[in-house]
């Protein structure tokens, strides 16, 4: 089986996020309808380290969850075999069982593994986990949906 990967330029075709909020640096491998593995290289230059915390930089848990959610969104688009247009919005609907096992800081490489649990009525559910050097640092079940700005305008 061949490895399917995406570099940062390709990732930007699937995610609208940009610095400082683009939190996926590379997709290492993915399988349509099943799973994806991606990485976030955590550097001391991250904006959030200016305030979290200046004397002991720690990646905020919500940023780790956001990185997992962005990875999940890429998997969804790859699974649907579509690239989103400027009207497509992915909404994060919820997370169940979020657990943070250890801090992530500058110099760490957050490896993110996301698997599709199910897709029903436009709701995607994923099992997601992040590791650093093979150690679990974050996990949870994510849910999201996709809408267009036209649909949002109708509400």
UniProtKB/TrEMBL annotation:
Q: Which family, according to UniProt? A: Belongs to the thioester dehydratase family. FabZ subfamily.
Gene Ontology MF terms: (3R)-hydroxyacyl-[acyl-carrier-protein] dehydratase activity
The chemistry this enzyme catalyses reads:
a (3R)-hydroxyacyl-[ACP] = a (2E)-enoyl-[ACP] + H2O
Function field: Involved in unsaturated fatty acids biosynthesis. Catalyzes the dehydration of short chain beta-hydroxyacyl-ACPs and long chain saturated and unsaturated beta-hydroxyacyl-ACPs.
> Among its keywords, does the record have Ion transport?
no
Identification of the protein by name: 3-hydroxyacyl-[acyl-carrier-protein] dehydratase FabZ
Q: Which SUPFAM superfamilies match?
A: Thioesterase/thiol ester dehydrase-isomerase
Name the Enzyme Commission number(s) assigned to this protein: 4.2.1.59
InterPro entries to which the protein is assigned, alphabetical: FabA_FabZ, FabZ, HotDog_dom_sf
Which residues are the active-site ones?
52
Q: Where in the cell is it found?
A: Cytoplasm
Mention one GO biological process in which this protein takes part, according to its record.
Answer: fatty acid biosynthetic process
Q: Could you tell me the keywords of this UniProt record?
A: Cytoplasm, Lipid A biosynthesis, Lipid biosynthesis, Lipid metabolism, Lyase
Indicate where this protein is primarily found.
cytoplasm
Query: Broadest EC class?
Result: lyase
Provide GO CC annotations from the record: cytoplasm; membrane
């Amino acid at each position: 089986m061949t490895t399917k990967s995406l570099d940062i330029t390709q990732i930007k075709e699937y995610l609208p996020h940009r610095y400082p909020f683009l939190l996926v640096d590379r997709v290492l491998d993915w399988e349509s309808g099943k799973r994806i593995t991606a990485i976030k290289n955590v550097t001391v230059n991250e904006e959030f380290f200016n305030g979290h915390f200046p004397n002991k930089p720690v990646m905020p848990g919500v940023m780790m969850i956001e990185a997992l959610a962005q990875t999940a969104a890429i998997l969804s688009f790859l699974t649907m075999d579509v690239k989103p247009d400027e009207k497509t919005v992915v909404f994060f609907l919820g997370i169940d069982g979020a657990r943070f096992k250890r801090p992530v800081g500058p110099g760490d490489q957050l490896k993110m593994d996301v698997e599709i649990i199910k897709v029903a009525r436009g709701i995607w559910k994923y099992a997601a986990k992040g590791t650093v050097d093979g150690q679990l640092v974050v996990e949870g079940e994510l849910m999201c949906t996709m809408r267009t700005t036209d649909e949002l305008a109708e509400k």
